[in-house]
Predict the structure.
Amino acid sequence: MRNFKIVLSYDGSDFQGWQTQPGYRTVQETLETALQTLTGEARVRVNASGRTDAGVHALGQVANFFSGLHIPQHKLLGAINAHLPADIVVHSIDEAAQSFDANHDAIRKLYRYVIHDGPTPSPFLRKYCCPSKRRLDAAAMARAAIVLEGRHDFHSFETEWPNRMSSVRTITHLAVNRAGDTIWIDVEADGFLYNMVRTIAGTLIHVGRGYWPESKVAEILKVEDRAEAGPTAPAQGLFLMRVTY
Amino acid sequence: MRNFKIVLSYDGSDFQGWQTQPGYRTVQETLETALQTLTGEARVRVNASGRTDAGVHALGQVANFFSGLHIPQHKLLGAINAHLPADIVVHSIDEAAQSFDANHDAIRKLYRYVIHDGPTPSPFLRKYCCPSKRRLDAAAMARAAIVLEGRHDFHSFETEWPNRMSSVRTITHLAVNRAGDTIWIDVEADGFLYNMVRTIAGTLIHVGRGYWPESKVAEILKVEDRAEAGPTAPAQGLFLMRVTY
């Protein structure tokens, strides 16, 4: 069996997230069904860098799967995409080392959270951002976010999940930028806790609205208590941008 | 009754076009229903600058309607949008002269046709562009398009429609530009024939692919025969950008 590495994007709007769940349309199951049809193999299992939740999008998700597939390399990409619906697109496929594991081998992931705070929302962005009726102070959000960079216990920024060993992660990059009516929060880390980016986004939105002073973010981090942080921002603003190996 | 002028955008993906048709979800009917609920009036008729077809989008559609509405100006926009689904957004509402007619008073309209010709399509653009597997020569398309500017009989570029008096129109601006994997064709004219922009797009795509020489466009224009032009490009790449009065 060969071990294939794929990089893919998907519009998460019409998926109940990555992971296969009986009775729901998921990215994993849609991919596996397409690969089973393509390869004629009874069971192809696709292993992603990580799950994404319902409504979350990906521009650079990475996954691997084992298959005896013997289509020539230059025809492989077209063949896979021909079996996929238009809301999943594979951008590259390459044979990887037998030991490559898209989940365990990921050393960093970059997520982007997108907010739109124009005077009226955009009908084209309704599934691809978090709308804010109030204009946010992106510069204050950027300053407030600085304390999150580095190695910390992010327990205040996770939705608790059974069997989690540790809430310590390292954020290697965190930036808040604005262009026109769009604000995006980029967070790159060596790993993410459940709902971590969405909780950071919800917290920074409270700062941007002026509900909280910039210094509140450092306090939240210190107390290690989820109840102190802001709300979990909606899924449709979140994009998995890049996975580094 | 006051005469209100609105500027609105809509994502045409889930509408069977602008015009009310029994049994279908249309922009006109959705707007009229919302305005009837808001005003409490039995019948509000919304008159647009022009119809858009199923799947066609608008960023700057203009329409007018008569109503006895007495909500203060600063609350009007919020009140209307609160009654609309997320795929229609009204960006401005102002009282116009009693004589204002969004259809008859339009002196120019600007449409944009969007094409994506990257190595793989984008799942996020699947409803908002025409995908092209082959890389197009946008510079050749731009040169070929020049002959269409000005006052001509555009009979070769229209889907015939009953009772059309004349196929003579004036294109005041026609430009083809590329940024990355996206090409957009802007066409501004004093009026448009049925499927005119989509037929121009389909013709220029043939030139961009190298099927036809640049000189072919002038020949098509001259023969005044729809059969000579390229195919009607798909609706989802078309956006009504701006209406000038």
